[in-house]
Amino acid sequence: MFDLAGKVVLATGANSGIGLGFLMGCARQGADVIVWGRRAKRNAEALAALKQAGAGRVHHEAVDVAEEEAVIAAFASSLAALGRVDCVFANAGFSSRAASFADLTTETYHSLLNVNQHGAFYTLREAARHMRDRANAGDPGIDPPHHRHPRCSRCR
User: What is the pTM of this model?
Assistant: First the structure.
């Protein structure tokens, strides 16, 4: 469908489900991928599947996105491993298992906020800082007009 060769895609909550599915699609288009999830073993299993799907370079971080410092450290480590990030999918999250809103505990409510809202904020803020710094250094962040991909109708 399109060429992601040379692009680095990071997804949170990406060792299963929607996050892994998103990275699989990107891998099939030639992207390098970064898996963020809380469980290192499941991350490694996801990397094996992503390599098989065609991912170029792969990397994973065991990170709890609810922890701001963990996100900052994982983003720095991901950059050290793959050099850049071009796309971020803030997918990590969970839903309450409470029987009803009235039964939702304060502890569960705060956990929901910490992962679903704050985790997305921390992750996207680090990505935006990185992409802003690259742009300020002259990196346009987009493919040149003639990327010469053999399956692209514009390039034939």
Answer: 0.88
